Amino acid sequence: MRQNPKNPNVSVFDSFSDSEANSDIETERMQAEAPIPAADEKTNVHRSFSAETSRTDVASPTQKNSRDAVEPPTFENSTSPNAAASESFLHSAARGSFHSEKVSFFELMQRLSQNHGSSMFQSLNSEYKVIIDNLNLRDDSYFVMECARDLSERLLMMDAMTAERTIPSNDLTKALVQILSDPIFAEDLELHLVVCRCLFNLVELYEDSAIDAISNKAIQALLPKISDIVYIDLTEQCLQTLEVLTTDRLAHSIFLENGGINACLKNLDFLTTHSQKKCLKIISNVSASIAVSHFTFVVDSFHSLLNILLSDIDPAINESTQTIIFRIIACFKSHRDNLEALFPAAELVVQFMRIAFHPLATDNLQLATQMNCHASLEALASLALASTGIRDTVLQNDIGSFIRTSIAVDSVTLKNRLTLKPHFLRSDKLSSTMLTLIACFIPTQFREAEFSMLLHPVGRFDEQQCVADIELLHLKSYLSHIFPVLVCFYEEFSDIRLKARVLSSLSDIISILNFDSGLYSPSPTDYSDFVATVADAIDGGKSCLTNYLEKVSMSDMSLLSASCYGIMSAFKFWGSPFLISMDREGVFSIIHEIVHTIDEKQILLDDSDDPVEPTSTHDPKKVLLKLLGAMYKICTELISHRESMGTEVTSLSNFPEIQEFIKHASSTLTDFEYCTNDEFEALWKEFRTILCKNSMTGHELKSLNLLSIISKLLSLTPVKNSVSIRAFISVFYEDRDTLSRLIHLLQGILSKQNIPSELESKALNNNLQLLKRRINLSLRQKLSSDGLVAIKDEAIMALVPALMSFDDLANFLRERLMQGSNSGALSKFAEKTSESCENQRYSVDFYYNGKLIKRSNTIYGTILGALTSKSVGRSSEIAELYSTHEVLYDLVSHQEENKSSQTKELAPPTDSCLVLLSNLNTINENFVRPQLQLEESVFVNFTLSLKLQRMLESPLIAINGLLPEWCYLFIRHAPFLFPIELKLQILRCLSFGLSRTDLFQFERLRGARRGSGTAADTNRSLSESIGHASRIKLRVSRDHIFKSAMKILREYGLLPSILEIEFMNEIGTGLGPTLEFYSLVSQCFSTDSGMWRHSAKDHTSVANGLFPASVGQNERNCIVQNHFKSLGQFIARAIFDSRNLDFYLNPVFIRAIQNWPQYSEFVNSSDLDTLLDLLTQVDPVLSSSLTHILSMTTSGKSKVEDLCLSFVQPGCSDLELVENGKNTLVTNANVHQYLILACKSILVLGIASNIDSFRKGFSSLLPLNVLTLFSARQFSDLMGNGEEDWTIETLKSAIGTDHGYSDDSEAIRNLLSILNEFTRHEQRDFLQFLTGSPRLPIGGFAALEPKLTIVKKFVETGMTRDEHLPSVMTCANYLKLPDYSLRAVMKMKILQAIKEGSGEFLLS
């Protein structure tokens, strides 16, 4: 069992010899291993692991020496194309990659058979004919049995190709089925079992044999044996065989007509759980395609399936049953009578609705659950669309409330706002299905016929049937729930198609209210939300008209057309006030632009009266013209209404208070340095009043130049603007709701300015398989200054991997040219290349389409970026991508190389909106007291975050560096716009190189978004071959943990390989020991008394976090600086390998290491009050003492001289604050100077060398801008000091159960309540015991990978369940928990296991 670890009790400053260190570390290099399941439990040991063995792959020299290794290219001369094919084939063969060259094993066997004949296959064929003859014998059952056993073993060892060529499948399956059906063998159940096993082995080999078995009535022979159970082994084998047979659609009708569903369900309660799953899997296969004529075979069984679903037994069985029901509904979704027969009672409909929405009640769904939820919502939508009775029943039972609670939760940042749950943000398919369900209950008969096509362009909503017969009486409650949900959908989605669907539903609701306003009375919040939604829609949709008018499609026009209809409907409902709101949002300027664009382009609009239905097959161009015509008519009518209103539509710029504020603010900027705090407060109160009184819009903020004025007033130059900033804080942090609304307006402006580009939409649709192909390059020399000319016959043809970088291509080009060429240009180039190899004066530059290429770019990314600008179609783009591309190369000197290789640093943002947001975030984080600060989520822009996340989920964008410039700009200068989870994804995708890129993760995320895991499974092997990170295993001694860590950082800390740690003399391996190593090293650093002002005995013992001790001038301080350098490298290594840390760093220290120049400038230019506030966060006791000294001078009752203080840093007499400070007495006259110098010494001067050492260590592995990617609070969370959610609801949603436990088991409920009651110290110990780390990763329990799973630990012979202790598998996050008799016993045993199981990894 796990024993208590030995306390090394060794000072971190003690030196050690290399020989001693080498004895503490053992190294094992390996490539990415596959874990092997842990050994079976043999003893009552409390902690276990997932044992691993190394699988070493042979790597090419390039892979060993390059961080981002790729396959070398294949070169050839342009005059010998056949040689290229041969060389490419041989090259692939040498690397063992025949599959990528379209040469299958079957083709090779065909070639062999042509040369050597097919006598072998003929011999085997004759043998099987003999076997078939023996199986047809009826006089000796024993002989038939032995023959069948021999056949079963043969089939088990055979491959599909051999079976297909040697076995007469039709005759063999006929013989086997006849044995199963023959009355002679009716009592010989053992023979049936062997024959059934033969049949299973055969049909599993290849598909044709399954078809032969079905044709020979195998299903009819197998079904009676599962309907009437006589021999359980035979029944289970029959189920296994039927599972394979029913995957073929030919079997479905036969299975149904012979009562297959009833046969599978008849004895379901008597079967094992495994067999029950087999039965349901068979029915699931069949229910994928059921003909209408077979409805009678389904209807009775359907009610039995509903009973199984309502019984809520095993979760896996429940899930399989749901899949069957959803598929059956999908088969009859167009047949109203059949669906009503499936749900004859209203209670069944209500129960099914609750079942469909039940999984959506949680905040985080797994991928499989998302897929099931999609199917359930789709089935419910099919029922609602097909049957009026079912639809009315669902409406009467408050489906609107179900939808609202399933989709969204109340926003924590804005009042009266909703925010979508994470699974809807991650899955477009799930969101699309929910929108379809919502639209099913919104009638469409109230649309204006003249403009109805604006909501349903041809080909847009084909899957959504128009509903026109819903009783309005049932809509009242539904609309009150759905309206805010739709607005929430629109605000948080970036997909234009989904936005258009949301706006169509909102417009339909407004049309209903035009008919009967009593159904629903929109609140002021609903009104303002709809105004903002329509304004954003028309602003976002106009670009497709103005920029792509010649090639615009109705898919592009859907958002614009829906917004035009929505404005017209809303005007008819709300009247003139709505037009006033539109004018304040800048909508009429856009409407004028639309009309002007259509007039300027001289588009011939179709004014014919021919109706165009949504399912029409009219000419798309004609339909598009009618669409533009309807939009043009609406826009001109709106302009006419606006002009007829005259002065009633008043712009906010005419309001006197606005004009007065602008004048006041402008004069303040002129006399900025002379304004007092009271004057600034008056100005900010005036601005706050304007925001509250007039409900200012984002368009007005921008158009009136208020953004520029406010950003200048809040400029972060400390000396000039500290008074303005303090006044702003005192005014707006008293009313944080107004400040939150201002930030919300700024976020809306920012989102509108960054609409996804055409590149994003194209690359997001590409798939990972394209990266596996090679690209043809024609390499020619660029015309250079010495007169060398690129000669056509001297081009070098290269077939290169798509992900090769131009840097690697330059290396291979040098090698190719060094092989020698006697022709003019190439020989001179080779001479220069040879010279460059000797003195490193020359390098190679590449040009594509006349542009110099960054050598870090991939070939695929460079070509794709160039093709996108041509705006070609997808098929043409792929064809052109893999055609031959001409690339020019040239020699450059070393100085020129440095110039060309320098990347342009992104200039700081100049946009006033972004500058103001950045200033507000900095003020909130650095100038406001922690208890008054706004939540970081207020500054997160969810729209931009979703756009960036989707692009990062596309490997073709992320790997090839094709992100739009705004992404890099915001990541670099405004990272606060993105949540911490997305920032970690940015690091994984963009910062660690191709060898560390998890391509399988890309496809898993995209599969989750699409609601399907197929792509992820398909591309797993491909992702391993492209993004392939090597691993290094290191064994360390627990007795010398810190010394071993220092040795590892020196020798392995800068390698790109993943480091995995094991402990000597312990069997544990994998993630658990690695996380424990990082935890132990974190504790060693934290308890180092020489590094910190207040060292920690443990993580929770430092009240304000770790802050560096001031450094004097002695040898020990040099050691401290080295340790700070090691600390920086250690933290960078943990981020690099995604390992949990266990530090509590002071927030002021975090600000210092993130941006030391800015921090030091801020501290050095701050006044005494600001310095004392900062010191309070570091050392509140010292800050209180210094404040008391300051108060002595103001009271006049005592003298500072009586304290006998000198000008040295408090607590560090080695640091003099002034020259000869030890002999300079602090007096009332110089006390102010003393306090300022003391604070600056503690906060800046005394820690400068330690901060510099930390940053050097960190930057040795990761760039320093990684530090600035996170806020101080986020970086603190990353270090292990974040808040953790241990509520029962969170634990229940994040924990899985299996092997004896379900979510409703009493033991699981007891465990959750025990974990919820644990103290902070007990929670840390439990996590250490379970995972190896005392901290949860970012995201809490839901982010544990693998998922935390609780399974039942069964009792050994001779022991009771209360005598067992829990055990864990740290690598799999697997907790084996006995089913204790009492809750108190469970808690006692868990705490005992935690205590006894710490300090060592052994088998369990």
Automatic annotation (TrEMBL):
Catalytic activity from the UniProt record: S-ubiquitinyl-[E2 ubiquitin-conjugating enzyme]-L-cysteine + [acceptor protein]-L-lysine = [E2 ubiquitin-conjugating enzyme]-L-cysteine + N(6)-ubiquitinyl-[acceptor protein]-L-lysine
Active site location: 1371 (glycyl thioester intermediate)
Biological-process GO terms, alphabetical: proteasome-mediated ubiquitin-dependent protein catabolic process; protein polyubiquitination
Keyword list, A-Z: Transferase, Ubl conjugation pathway
GO molecular function: ubiquitin protein ligase activity
Domain HECT: 1051-1404
InterPro entries: ARM-like, ARM-type_fold, HECT_dom, Hect_E3_ubiquitin_ligase, HECTD1/TRIP12-like
Superkingdom of origin: Eukaryota
Region (Disordered): 1-82
EC number: 2.3.2.26
Bias-annotated ranges (Polar residues): 1-24, 46-64
GO cellular component: nuclear speck
Family under the similarity heading: Belongs to the UPL family. K-HECT subfamily.
Name of the protein: HECT-type E3 ubiquitin transferase
Organism the protein comes from: Australozyma saopauloensis
